[in-house]
């Protein structure tokens, strides 16, 4: 009886050790890696505080872009792209993979993994974005609205799942899957299509930074 008891205890001890090792490799290490990446993204509020234009923004009636909005947006995106240079290749590569696999709409877990893997580059891109916003006179709210409206008019598939997850992570929240998909709905004004059409190539080139909410 004792042998059976000790044998069962031995099995339990071994099982506990295996569970502990498995928990370390499959839960603790990934969680620690995730939190390390998310901590970097928490620099965003400090960086946003450097934006000079802090005026409240209200979307134009009917959601119609102006020529000035589109021009300034393209300038800001191009400045960000030029500043980051070859470092954007990693963002581009990740975007292309997710876009091809999911039609521009990655799953929640894929979005989180993308942010974790690219956190350092995203923070550097955010710094470049702040400089671009100040140079073009954008507030953050206006820039975000214009970004969504421009890509809606461009016809380039653009989910803002990742931008939503990024926003949560940057404020120290644990990203959640609830309301993560913020599809841009409604009829796109024809005027918006007309204004955006000449910039189709530039928008494709800069799709990765827009995909990450930058």
How would you characterize this protein structure?
With 214 residues, the protein is mostly helical. The protein has one domain. 70% of the residues lie in helices and 0% in strands. The protein contains ten helices and no strands. Helix 3 (67-84) packs across helix 5. The longest helix has 40 residues, at 2-41. It is globular, with a radius of gyration of 22 Å. The termini are far apart.
Concise summary:
The protein has 214 residues and is mainly alpha-helical.
Give the rounded overall mean pLDDT: 78
H/E series: HHHHHHHHHH
Helix content: over 70%
Supply the number of helical segments.
10
Question: Strands, helices and their partners?
Answer:
Layout: H1 2-41, H2 44-48, H3 67-84, H4 88-102, H5 108-136, H6 140-154, H7 161-170, H8 190-196, H9 200-205, H10 207-211
What structural keywords apply?
mainly alpha, 214 residues, 10 helices
């Amino acid at each position: 009886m004792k042998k059976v008891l000790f044998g069962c205890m031995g099995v339990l001890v071994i099982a506990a050790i295996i569970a502990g090792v498995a928990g370390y490799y499959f839960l603790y290490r990934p969680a620690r890696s995730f939190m390390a990446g998310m901590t970097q993204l928490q620099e965003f509020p400090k960086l946003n505080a450097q934006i000079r234009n802090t005026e409240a923004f209200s979307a134009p009636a009917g959601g119609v872009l102006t020529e000035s909005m589109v021009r300034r947006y393209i300038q800001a995106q191009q400045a960000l792209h030029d500043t980051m240079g070859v470092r954007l290749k990693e963002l581009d590569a990740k975007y292309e993979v997710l876009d091809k696999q999911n039609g521009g709409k990655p799953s929640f877990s894929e979005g989180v993994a993308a942010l974790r893997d690219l956190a350092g580059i995203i923070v550097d891109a955010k710094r470049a974005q702040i400089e671009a916003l100040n140079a073009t006179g954008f507030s953050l709210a206006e820039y975000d609205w214009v970004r969504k409206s421009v890509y809606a008019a461009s016809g380039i598939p653009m989910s803002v799942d990742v931008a939503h997850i990024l926003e949560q992570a940057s404020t120290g929240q644990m990203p959640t899957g609830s309301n993560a998909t913020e599809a841009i709905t409604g009829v796109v004004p024809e005027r918006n299509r007309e204004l955006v059409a000449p910039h189709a190539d530039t928008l494709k080139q800069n799709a990765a930074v827009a995909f990450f909410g930058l």
